[in-house]
Amino acid sequence: MGTTDEGGGEAVRPWYADGLRFECTQCGNCCSGPPGAVWFTAEEAGAMARELKIATAEFLERYTRRVGARRSLKELKIDGRYDCVFLDRTTRPGKAICGIYRARPSQCRTWPWWPEVVESPETWEETKRRTPCPGMGSGRVHPLVEITIGLTGS
Ligand code: SF4
Predict the structure, then answer these.
(1) Is residue 130 part of a domain?
(2) Residue 3 — pLDDT band, cuts 50, 70, 90?
(3) Is the pTM of this model over 0.85?
(4) How many structural domains is the chain composed of?
(5) Is residue 76 part of a domain?
(6) What is the mean pLDDT of the chain?
(7) Which residue, 51, 64, 86, 91, has fewest beta-carbon neighbours within 10 Å?
(8) What domain range is 68 assigned to?
(9) 12 or 41, which is more confident?
(10) Distance 96 CA to ligand 1 centre (A)
(11) C-alpha 119 to ligand 1 mean position (Å)
């Protein structure tokens, strides 16, 4: 049975109310593929620059590019795919890890709890197949509260 919201109506129980399985295998697929954009806030730019021990201006110049009115992290074209500039495929053989993991922006931290990904079971399965992300649907169950926090970008 659904719960009653403050307006007196029935609160909609999301399809993932019982949680979703996800455990990253460090394949790097979500940080690569067709050209894309990794957005970040000014605070996140500062955090990434500090992680790299460089000034924010230098960080923006070296690692980001303008996309319309915004800036995205750069990508490197490798074997026909576009890797995030910080994707590290060499430090751990067989793994692809984030070179600025502790300071990665919200867009990366909240994957795969994105509204367009968890919109429906179909979008979840389609994203899992298209990325492809072997971590989606396997590993530990992430409870609803954790997914909701991810969806709000916290
Ligand atoms: S595609 Fe999935 S399993 Fe692979 S690195 Fe990204 S989150 Fe991890």
Answers:
(1) yes
(2) very low
(3) yes
(4) 1
(5) yes
(6) 93
(7) 91
(8) 20-152
(9) 41
(10) 9
(11) 19
Q: What is the pLDDT of residue 12?
A: 85
How far apart are the CA of 134 and the centre of ligand 1, in A?
6
Q: From the CB of 134, is ligand 1 less than 6 Å away? A: yes
Which of the listed residues 20, 21, 27 should we mutate to test ligand 1's pocket, taking the one with most ligand atoms within 8 A of CB?
A: 27
Q: Measured between alpha carbons, how far is 130 from 82 in angstroms, rounded to an integer? A: 15
Q: Which residues of 115-138 are buried (b: 16+ CB within 10 A; e: fewer)?
A: eebbeeeeebeebbeebebebbee
What's the pLDDT tens digit per position in 5-39? 445 556 789 999 999 999 999 999 999 999 999 99
Q: Is 52 part of any domain?
A: yes
Q: Check: CB of residue 45 under 8 Å from CB of residue 107.
A: no
Cα 149–chain centre separation: 13
Ligand 1 lined by 97 (C-beta under 6 Å): no
Is 117 near ligand 1, meaning CB less than 6 Å away?
Answer: no
